Amino acid sequence: MSLSAEYYTDKTGDRGGGGGAAALAHQRRLIQGLLVWATLLTLGLGVSITLHFIHRDSPASSKVTQVPADNQAESKDSSLMRFAPAWDRRENVTFLTWTTNNIGFIKGKQNLTVTKHGEYFLYLQLTLDHQQKAKHTITVRSQKQEILKGFINGSKSVFMANGIFLDNDDILTVTCEPGAKIMDSHAESYLGVIKLNST
C-alpha cells in the first residue's frame, strides 16, 4: 500500500507550495553557520591561550630573578608539571596513581601533595579501555573541595580543566567510580598542573 502525494502533503503541512523544503534548507544554512561560528571561536580561543603562554615565557616579558640554592634542583620550566599513568590497564582502577619526572611543587603518586601555595591550572584526560560499558564518574578533589568532575558514558574519554587556589599541604586525589580499566598510555591518559603564581 502506497501513500498518495495528496495524503503526504496534507499530513506534513506542505500544501504544494514548497514551504517545507524552503524551511528545511533555511534551517540547514543556520546550522552550518552556527558550526562555522563555533569553529572560529574555538580556534580563536586556542590562539589566544597559545599567545598568552608564549608572551608570558618570552625574554622581554620575564624578569631576571635569582634562583635560591635549595631550588636549583627544579627544572627550568618549573611552572608546569606533567603526570603519566602508573597503573596497569588490565586491572580495574578506582584511585589513580601517577608518576612524574620533574621535581616541582607537587609530590607523591596517589595522594599528590602541594608544596607551594598559589593559583594553579589543572587539566586531566582519561581514556577508558574499549571494553568498558558502564557510566563512570571521574573526580579530582582536595580535602577541602571538589576541583574537577566529569562523566564518561558512551564516549570513551573525558577532558577537564579548571583554575583553582591551592594551599601548602593540600592533597589531590583522582578517582574513577566505579573502578574501570583505564588506558595507561601517556597520550591517552594524563594529568597536568600549571603554577600560575604564588602569593
Automatic annotation (TrEMBL):
<comment type="similarity">
    <text>Belongs to the tumor necrosis factor family.</text>
</comment>
<dbReference type="InterPro" id="IPR042380">
    <property type="entry name" value="TNFSF18"/>
</dbReference>
<feature type="domain" description="THD">
    <location>
        <begin position="98"/>
        <end position="147"/>
    </location>
</feature>
<dbReference type="InterPro" id="IPR006052">
    <property type="entry name" value="TNF_dom"/>
</dbReference>
<feature type="transmembrane region" description="Helical">
    <location>
        <begin position="34"/>
        <end position="54"/>
    </location>
</feature>
<dbReference type="InterPro" id="IPR008983">
    <property type="entry name" value="Tumour_necrosis_fac-like_dom"/>
</dbReference>
<dbReference type="Pfam" id="PF00229">
    <property type="entry name" value="TNF"/>
</dbReference>
<keyword id="KW-0472">Membrane</keyword>
<keyword id="KW-1133">Transmembrane helix</keyword>
<keyword id="KW-0812">Transmembrane</keyword>
<protein>
    <submittedName>
        <fullName>Cytochrome b</fullName>
    </submittedName>
</protein>
